[in-house]
Prior knowledge:
By secondary structure, this protein is mostly helical. It contains four helices and no strands. It is a multi-pass membrane protein.
Amino acid sequence: MSINDQNMPMTQKLYESAPYSRHVAKFLTASTLGVTLLFLSGLTLTGTVIALIMATPLLVIFSPVLVPAGMTVFLVISGFLFSGGCAVAAITALSWMYYYVQGKHPLGADQLDYARNKLASTARDMTQKAKEYGQYVQHKAREVSRGGQAGYQSL
């Protein structure tokens, strides 16, 4: 404790260390809201469990109809969502290709150009190597055929 703290009256020390009324109001509001929401979630859970208990006999009686109907609805909805997703992907791809052909530089065009140039360069290199290897094989074939003819003539 400093000397200034010792000279202050006790009420002033308590006033400075006490929380502000705004902080207390925030805490009380948050606590009230939290407790209310917790109570409502408990009521909702209780109501859901009671409704499930009451509906179980009906679900068991109608399950031969409800299960296939539910599966059919699930498959139909899944099919529509999948076809819609494919349509969005196709439209996006066609739009991207249109902008690329128009020269409007869509997102990823630099990477595509780099990959295309790299592929073309690799193809040229492989073509050159194939030509060199073909010439090498032809040269070796001529050497072998000349060597073979000379061997037959000496006999």
